[in-house]
Amino acid sequence: MFPIKISMLYYLMVFSCLTACASQTVVTEEVLFKGEGQFWNATYIYNPDLENGKGVNWIEIDYIEDESSNLDVNKIDIELESRDGLITGNIGQMENRIEGNTISFLVGTVNEETYIEDEYKLIIKFNDEQDVIKLKHK
Q1: Structural domain tally of the chain?
Q2: Is residue 5 part of a domain?
Q3: What is the rounded CA–CA span in Å between residue 61 and residue 105?
Q4: What one-character-per-residue DSSP string does 92-108 give?
Q5: CA–CA separation, 114 and 116 (whole Å)
Q6: Does 76 fall in a domain?
Q7: Angle subtended at Cα 136 by Cα 49 and Cα 122, rounded to the nearest 5 degrees
Protein backbone atom coordinates (compact mmCIF):
# COMPACT_ATOMS: atom_id res chain seq x y z
CA MET A 1 0.00 0.00 0.00
CA PHE A 2 2.86 2.40 0.76
CA PRO A 3 4.30 2.22 -2.81
CA ILE A 4 0.91 3.15 -4.24
CA LYS A 5 0.83 6.34 -2.13
CA ILE A 6 4.30 7.27 -3.35
CA SER A 7 3.23 6.70 -6.96
CA MET A 8 0.11 8.81 -6.49
CA LEU A 9 2.14 11.57 -4.87
CA TYR A 10 4.63 11.48 -7.73
CA TYR A 11 1.89 11.79 -10.35
CA LEU A 12 0.23 14.62 -8.45
CA MET A 13 3.55 16.52 -8.32
CA VAL A 14 4.13 16.02 -12.06
CA PHE A 15 0.57 17.10 -12.87
CA SER A 16 0.94 20.19 -10.66
CA CYS A 17 4.16 21.14 -12.42
CA LEU A 18 2.61 20.71 -15.86
CA THR A 19 -0.43 22.74 -14.85
CA ALA A 20 1.74 25.54 -13.41
CA CYS A 21 3.93 25.63 -16.52
CA ALA A 22 0.88 25.80 -18.78
CA SER A 23 -0.63 28.74 -16.90
CA GLN A 24 1.88 31.36 -18.01
CA THR A 25 0.54 34.76 -19.04
CA VAL A 26 1.21 35.77 -22.66
CA VAL A 27 2.31 39.40 -23.00
CA THR A 28 -0.32 41.41 -24.91
CA GLU A 29 0.84 44.96 -24.19
CA GLU A 30 4.14 46.68 -23.42
CA VAL A 31 5.97 45.08 -20.47
CA LEU A 32 9.25 46.03 -18.78
CA PHE A 33 11.72 43.38 -17.62
CA LYS A 34 14.17 45.08 -15.24
CA GLY A 35 17.33 44.26 -13.36
CA GLU A 36 20.29 45.80 -11.56
CA GLY A 37 23.95 44.98 -11.92
CA GLN A 38 27.19 46.20 -10.40
CA PHE A 39 27.81 48.83 -13.10
CA TRP A 40 24.51 49.00 -15.02
CA ASN A 41 20.76 49.02 -14.52
CA ALA A 42 18.89 47.49 -17.44
CA THR A 43 15.37 47.35 -18.87
CA TYR A 44 14.17 45.10 -21.68
CA ILE A 45 11.11 46.83 -23.13
CA TYR A 46 8.94 44.21 -24.78
CA ASN A 47 6.20 45.65 -26.99
CA PRO A 48 4.21 43.02 -28.91
CA ASP A 49 3.15 45.60 -31.54
CA LEU A 50 6.78 46.45 -32.34
CA GLU A 51 7.69 42.77 -32.13
CA ASN A 52 5.02 41.73 -34.64
CA GLY A 53 5.81 44.53 -37.06
CA LYS A 54 9.61 44.41 -37.08
CA GLY A 55 10.71 41.52 -34.85
CA VAL A 56 12.69 43.83 -32.54
CA ASN A 57 12.45 45.44 -29.11
CA TRP A 58 14.44 48.00 -27.12
CA ILE A 59 16.88 47.51 -24.27
CA GLU A 60 17.91 50.48 -22.13
CA ILE A 61 21.03 50.32 -20.02
CA ASP A 62 21.92 53.02 -17.49
CA TYR A 63 25.53 53.35 -16.40
CA ILE A 64 25.51 53.72 -12.61
CA GLU A 65 28.71 55.78 -12.39
CA ASP A 66 28.43 59.57 -12.59
CA GLU A 67 30.73 59.98 -15.57
CA SER A 68 29.95 58.36 -18.88
CA SER A 69 32.67 60.11 -20.88
CA ASN A 70 34.64 56.89 -21.32
CA LEU A 71 31.63 54.92 -22.62
CA ASP A 72 32.08 54.13 -26.28
CA VAL A 73 29.19 52.09 -27.75
CA ASN A 74 31.67 50.51 -30.16
CA LYS A 75 33.42 48.98 -27.13
CA ILE A 76 30.30 47.60 -25.44
CA ASP A 77 29.25 44.04 -26.25
CA ILE A 78 26.08 42.37 -25.01
CA GLU A 79 24.63 38.90 -24.68
CA LEU A 80 20.89 38.52 -24.08
CA GLU A 81 19.89 35.00 -23.09
CA SER A 82 16.38 33.60 -22.72
CA ARG A 83 14.77 30.18 -22.57
CA ASP A 84 14.56 30.08 -26.39
CA GLY A 85 17.82 31.62 -27.52
CA LEU A 86 20.79 33.93 -27.29
CA ILE A 87 21.43 37.27 -28.97
CA THR A 88 24.97 38.66 -29.04
CA GLY A 89 26.40 41.78 -30.56
CA ASN A 90 28.17 45.09 -30.30
CA ILE A 91 25.96 48.06 -29.38
CA GLY A 92 27.82 50.28 -31.83
CA GLN A 93 26.63 48.04 -34.67
CA MET A 94 23.01 48.14 -33.52
CA GLU A 95 20.51 50.95 -33.90
CA ASN A 96 21.11 52.95 -30.72
CA ARG A 97 20.41 56.22 -28.91
CA ILE A 98 22.51 57.81 -26.19
CA GLU A 99 21.19 60.29 -23.63
CA GLY A 100 23.53 61.03 -20.73
CA ASN A 101 24.35 57.74 -19.01
CA THR A 102 21.50 55.90 -20.78
CA ILE A 103 22.06 53.86 -23.92
CA SER A 104 19.05 52.43 -25.75
CA PHE A 105 19.47 49.86 -28.50
CA LEU A 106 17.34 47.54 -30.61
CA VAL A 107 17.63 43.76 -30.28
CA GLY A 108 16.02 41.02 -32.32
CA THR A 109 13.44 38.48 -31.28
CA VAL A 110 14.57 36.24 -28.41
CA ASN A 111 11.52 34.06 -27.62
CA GLU A 112 8.92 32.46 -29.84
CA GLU A 113 6.31 33.62 -27.31
CA THR A 114 6.89 36.13 -24.50
CA TYR A 115 5.34 35.63 -21.06
CA ILE A 116 5.11 37.91 -18.02
CA GLU A 117 6.93 35.18 -16.06
CA ASP A 118 9.94 35.14 -18.44
CA GLU A 119 13.42 35.92 -17.15
CA TYR A 120 16.38 37.06 -19.20
CA LYS A 121 20.10 37.20 -18.52
CA LEU A 122 21.89 40.26 -19.93
CA ILE A 123 25.68 40.30 -19.96
CA ILE A 124 27.34 43.64 -20.68
CA LYS A 125 31.06 43.63 -21.50
CA PHE A 126 32.88 46.99 -21.45
CA ASN A 127 36.22 48.48 -20.41
CA ASP A 128 37.61 45.04 -19.45
CA GLU A 129 34.62 44.62 -17.08
CA GLN A 130 31.58 42.37 -17.24
CA ASP A 131 28.17 42.89 -15.66
CA VAL A 132 25.62 40.06 -15.44
CA ILE A 133 22.05 41.24 -14.92
CA LYS A 134 18.91 39.13 -14.44
CA LEU A 135 15.88 40.82 -16.00
CA LYS A 136 12.35 40.04 -14.88
CA HIS A 137 8.97 41.72 -14.77
CA LYS A 138 8.52 43.75 -11.59
Answers
A1: 1
A2: no
A3: 9
A4: GGS-EEEETTEEEEEEE
A5: 7
A6: yes
A7: 90
**What confidence score (pLDDT) does residue 61 get?**
97
pLDDT at 4 over 70: no
- What is the pTM for the complete model shown? 0.80
Mean of pLDDT over the chain: 85
CA dist 67 and 88 (Å) reads 26
Q: Which residues contact 8 (CB under 8 A, 6 or more apart)?
A: none
β-bridge partners, 62: 41, 102
- What CATH number is attached to the domain comprising 102? 2.60.40
Alpha-carbon span 77 to 79, nearest angstrom:
7
Nearest to 96 by CA among 53, 56, 55, 137: 56
